[in-house]
Amino acid sequence: MHWLSKALWSYMHPQKLMCRGLRKNPNRSSLDHGIDSSASAMRVTIPALQTPLTEEDLVLLALDKSLEVKDVKPKPKKKKNVPLKKLIQPEVNPPLTEPITAETQYERLAQVVTPLYQASYTTQLKMKTTKALEVLKTLSRRMTENRCLFEKDKKGLACHLEPVRPSPDILAYRNKDEFGIHYGVDGNPKTVGFFVGKPTDPLMTCVPATHLINVKESHKLIAQRFQTFIRQSTHEACLKFDLGGIWRNLLVRSTRSDERMATVYIHPQDLIEDEILEIMSDLEAFFFHGEGSDCQLDSLYLQACKNTRCSREQAPYRLIKGKEHILETLEGLSFSISPDSFFQINTGGAEELYRVVREVAEVSSLTTLLDVCCGTGAISIVMSPFVRGSVGIDVISAAVEDANKNAFANKISNTEFIAGKAEMVLPQLTEELSQCTDVVAIMNPARAGLKPEVIQAIKQCEAITKLMYITCKPEGMAMENFMQLASNKVKGSSKKKTVPFIPKYAVPIDMFPHTHHTELVVLFERAFL
């Protein structure tokens, strides 16, 4: 905290009257651009595909040039309310009623992984705007029921909502893919791809990613070559831990400059060290000197893990050959990517996300950022030129190590990263933060959301005047976090009442084209502002 402690009195300053342009004139980007907010108006008729689409067909679809989407007349309103979960998050991987065949496998996989792939991108954005509207309507209803302090906008929402901001890239935008191993349509248990059906379903089938429009061709090639490798191997696939076999998963990552990293995950079973080394040697020979050399890997790792997931402390990542890291660029800054690094799945979308955070939070040279769940420090580092300084907190010490390395590599001196639980670290920063002018907290937690203890610690840190909550699943635990922020006391807490946060502005960002998901950014402000 050296930079935060220096000459604090020189920064003591009355609260700056920040520009409130976004919220004084919210209609500058209103939702009245021909978008029907009813859920039924967003339904579309999607014709079934009989054969896999060609690459040309997929491009035409993405550019709204092919397969017209037919409007369906709204159905009469039913007396019973449709559950929000079903309305905005339809089940795209239902139980299988018939086997997947060679003729249907690619279409069925596309329906699971990219369920909106036959809708024009304009229609997808309208559907996602409707989903965000439903989320904020639910938040408004719940806050009203709980007598929370907030201001409804003219549409009855908990705060003003912008239309969904589109992704800069809508084809092959994923920079990370995790491929599973299971039975394919040919009955071979060493098929590499994505699953159609659920693990408990006896008809679950693994289908190669051959025709998915959101996956890079380089990733598909690496998965295809890996399938060739394991089918030649004498070791079996690990379909269930107690049934033996070693081959489990393949993780592929890549960057804008097309650096490529692959990580092979195995279950070590009863293998001795020499046998693991032999597997690593075989992988090196195949991918760097043999049939897999056309994958042009820059980095190849192996992790031998006996659990569903292992941290690097539990099971180290072993570098087979190549670089320890690949480098990604974000707004002119470079970030080292490790096998287990957290990084937004859509790099261009991530840049748009951080621009939205900067714009809506109205940061300035007087702002101190509090980056909760900072991961490898991307938000703090990207925002560093626009703020006085930032403090990142993450419970995963390895992530904090990577964050410090990224800051050092980019010559960023006004950031500091702390490993620990946010509810334990925040009270230690309260006194110093109280002497700062404009403290903005940014939270980008996993889908499980934040624990009530973290929310309580944030609310008790009265120096925090604004809070940006980023979530890709706002209808899940994030909704509970929203309610906890808006309440003057966290449920089950013995702490004294705290000043709540009020939702003020929301912006959805399409980080995941052709799926139902979006990234939602919600600005909260202290009730006394």
Automatic annotation (TrEMBL):
GO molecular function, one term: tRNA (uracil(54)-C5)-methyltransferase activity, S-adenosyl methionine-dependent
Record family assignment: Belongs to the class I-like SAM-binding methyltransferase superfamily. RNA M5U methyltransferase family.
Record keywords: Methyltransferase, S-adenosyl-L-methionine, Transferase
Any Gene Ontology biological process: methylation
Name of protein: tRNA (uracil(54)-C(5))-methyltransferase
Higher taxonomy: Eukaryota, Metazoa, Ecdysozoa, Arthropoda, Crustacea
Pfam families assigned: tRNA_U5-meth_tr
Binding site for S-adenosyl-L-methionine: Q344, D394, N444
Active-site residues from the entry: C472 (nucleophile)
Enzyme class: transferase
Highest taxon listed in the record's lineage: Eukaryota
CDD domains in alphabetical order: AdoMet_MTases
